[in-house]
From TrEMBL:
<feature type="domain" description="PLL-like beta propeller">
    <location>
        <begin position="210"/>
        <end position="331"/>
    </location>
</feature>
<dbReference type="InterPro" id="IPR058502">
    <property type="entry name" value="PLL-like_beta-prop"/>
</dbReference>
<protein>
    <recommendedName>
        <fullName>PLL-like beta propeller domain-containing protein</fullName>
    </recommendedName>
</protein>
<dbReference type="Pfam" id="PF26607">
    <property type="entry name" value="DUF8189"/>
</dbReference>
<feature type="domain" description="PLL-like beta propeller">
    <location>
        <begin position="5"/>
        <end position="203"/>
    </location>
</feature>
């Protein structure tokens, strides 16, 4: 199947943003809707590039005093300021926060010590930031903003369980946070809040077997959680939330053969896009056939040659055009961008 030619879903030419990246890129939208992408560079240094107002890209920015191991987790808070959570080489959870909207970042703040893997963040229904991570005991842990001032955080709390990859949290259309995790025995589990802004959680639910990657999450146009992962046979698999936001349907296969976890995002036309690194090391995409539908097109190649790091979670700009960042192949480890255009 050929790539879409519908305005707003057309894919442009590849853009080389250079740099030397050593982990999956992590994009975030500033309060003025410019995209900023964070990466881990050599010697565990945190770097970023920020989109300019004319659609170009500013120079690389280094963050002195920040040492990051793994994939950073940036998120924009309800107050408009971006925060970047990350795991240090000493396995501490730290955060840097913008000093004001659309500005630079302050000094690192330690939030927890002795974490087991990279953090992931999402907003709760009231706008507070929740940060989830595996503990050294393999349990799922989280902390959140202490109050609506967004500058202080609770102590870490265990949700128990046994997880074996970075968790994937998201706020669903029913107003509750859902966290998808890879559990023991290559299984997919989910856990969700008992109510909007609740401090209590439902028990873990077993939702799929044969999971060989960290799950990825996004929302469809109805606000239902869609979970994608790599199956034991190398195919892309999807688990979709039920209409009442209370449980998940049985897993279905989207086919293809992949070597990394799939990522997903909602496109301008209301359809979910799923991105993969296929066995030819190129970037491929499949799209819902209809808004909120259960079927997808076949995967279409967007070309490129992807390196050893994963594909970023796609992010939409102010025009709801999707951006996908990835590490290029070769010694340079350049950061590359593929994005949708109107022409």
């Amino acid at each position: 199947m050929s790539v879409s030619t519908t305005p707003g879903t057309v894919w442009g030419t590849w853009i080389n943003l250079q740099g030397g990246i050593h982990s999956e890129p992590a994009p975030v939208a500033q309060a003025d809707d410019r995209i900023q992408v964070f990466i881990r560079g050599g010697s565990n240094v945190l770097w970023s590039r920020l989109e300019t107002r004319d659609g170009g890209w500013g120079p690389w920015q280094q963050y002195p005093g920040v040492s990051v191991d793994g994939i950073p987790a940036p998120i924009r808070g309800k107050d408009g300021k971006v925060r970047v959570f990350y795991r240090t080489p000493g396995n501490n959870l730290e955060v840097i926060t913008q000093t004001s909207i659309n500005s630079g970042y302050g000094s690192p703040q330690i939030l927890a010590t002795g974490i087991g893997d990279d953090p992931a963040a999402t907003l709760g229904a009231d706008g507070r930031i929740y940060v989830f991570f595996p503990g050294t005991d393999d349990a799922l842990w989280y902390l959140r903003n202490l109050d609506l001032q967004y500058e202080t955080y609770t102590a870490a709390t265990s949700l128990t369980g046994a997880i074996f990859a970075t968790p994937s949290p998201i706020l669903d259309g029913g107003g509750r946070i859902v966290v998808a995790v890879k559990g023991s025995g290559e299984t997919l589990y989910t856990i969700q809040q008992t109510g909007t802004n609740s401090a209590t959680w439902e028990p873990f639910s077993l939702d799929a077997p044969n999971v060989t990657s960290r799950p990825s999450v996004c929302l469809d146009a109805a606000g239902r959680v869609q979970i994608f992962f790599r199956g034991v046979d190398g195919s892309v698999r999807r688990v979709g939330q039920t209409d009442d936001y209370n449980s998940f349907n049985a897993p279905v296969s989207l086919g293809a053969q992949i070597v990394w976890r799939p990522t997903c995002g909602l496109g301008q036309d209301g359809r979910v896009n799923v991105f993969i690194k296929a066995t030819d090391n190129a970037l491929w995409v499949a799209v819902q056939t209809t808004e909120n539908g259960n079927t997808y097109t076949g995967f279409q190649s967007l070309g490129g040659v992807i390196g050893s790091a994963g594909i970023s979670v796609p992010i939409a700009n102010e025009e709801n055009l999707l951006y996908v960042f990835l590490q290029g192949n070769g010694i340079a480890r350049d950061l590359w961008l593929q994005r949708q255009t109107f022409v």
